[in-house]
Automatic annotation (TrEMBL), chains A, B:
Residue ranges of every copy of the Transcription regulator PadR N-terminal domain listed in the record: 7-78
Organism (species): Amnibacterium kyonggiense
Positions of the Transcription regulator PadR C-terminal domain: 92-187
Protein's recorded name: PadR family transcriptional regulator
Cross-referenced Gene3D superfamilies: Winged helix-like DNA-binding domain superfamily/Winged helix DNA-binding domain (1.10.10.10)
Length: 193, 193
DNA sequence: ACTGTCATGTAAGACGTTACATGATTAC
DNA sequence: GTAATCATGTAACGTCTTACATGACAGT
């Protein structure tokens, strides 16, 4: 149900088409949730059938068309229900740590390659998240601006603070993974001697 | 392919039945990978069809039966190939951080409930992983003992070190999540004033 | 004319979850 | 005898990925 909640969260700020939602999943919200078009379009139709959103057909030029989705009161309630419901924590499935547990079965060079790739992977994420925090602080985040525009004055500070808090968590996680990979590289060195 | 790799990793230490593998996924390896029986049994059969494992039928009592799976040289090679291949990092899908980004839309009490549950969730994991590290240090980890028994002398230190390293990473991650949740609780307090 | 981006999808398959079904053996 | 645990599955469903299909519009 998290895809649905992510879609509702975006649509609650203002109507969007499937295509625009897809774009959001590559930028802002994409940092915490991702979905391809092939998942979004069918989900939107199911949500419309269930009355959580309504589609509004628009024309573009002569024959072009797109469908803007609006959240209904039922959709709004569904989102808030989700926000209040206990999160379903999934059982761990962590390929990187699984592999780490068996690094002695490959050559030190190969172990290093894995750990360096892990570090690189998280450095890339870290860079994205840090720059997102800078954009939030500078008031330049487009998604946050859009949200603040429809937010009552007294909630603006909270909206910004929680958004920043979210990214801080991601940044800390990335730093933890990077530090772990570096300790792994040091361990490979130590074991080789 | 990670389920397959996890199964091969376990079977490389020694033959096991589907039932025993299932058990392992609730304890030792279960800390980094989980799978229910309904996934394990069919996967083992597919792996046998592909020649990665061979099943050996055994009897138990009068009519009882079980099937012990052994890794073949092809299975061994497949595991090492996986160890050497680049890890497929999945796009983020993080319900907890998704929710955190919208905490201003619920009451402070509800935001606190979510953050406390998050902290609790990770404290429970942390306790498990820390006790696993203590077991490793005390030489009491059954899975590690089993692995060390089939490991050449010169690789024993590495095997133990990588196993500990894996759990250290999990412990650090849990601590990061706990610290984040606590900062979130402090933030809720600050915003309420 | 051609490229890029807007726009919406289908199809097939891999992966995972939950619930249920069935029967044997072991320990009390 | 009865409960626990050993042992192996099936069925239905939900989620997610990858690849492909189709066409319109906008700018050069």
């Amino acid at each position: 149900m998290s895809l649905r909640s992510a879609l509702l969260a975006l649509l609650r700020v203002g109507p969007m088409s499937g295509y625009e939602l897809q774009k959001q999943f590559s930028v802002s919200v994409g940092h915490v949730w991702h979905a391809p078009g092939s998942q979004i379009y069918p989900e939107l139709r199911r949500m419309e059938e269930e009355g959580l959103v309504v589609g509004e057909d628009q024309t573009r030029g002569e024959r072009g068309a797109r469908r803007l989705y609006h959240v209904t009161p039922a959709g709004d309630a569904a989102f808030l229900d989700w926000m209040r419901s206990p999160l379903g924590y999934l059982r761990v499935r962590d390929p990187a740590h699984l592999r780490a547990a068996y690094l002695e079965s490959v050559e030190p060079a190969e172990a290093r390659a894995f750990l360096r790739a892990h570090e690189e992977q998280w450095r890339a994420e870290l860079a994205q998240w840090e720059s997102e925090i800078r954009r939030i602080d500078a008031g330049e985040s487009p998604m946050l601006q859009r949200r603040l525009a429809v937010t009552a004055d007294e909630e603006r500070a909270a909206t910004t603070a929680y958004k920043r808090f979210t990214y801080e968590g991601l940044v800390e996680r990335a730093r933890t993974e990077i530090a772990w990979a570096q300790r792994g590289l040091a361990l490979v060195d130590r074991l080789e001697r």
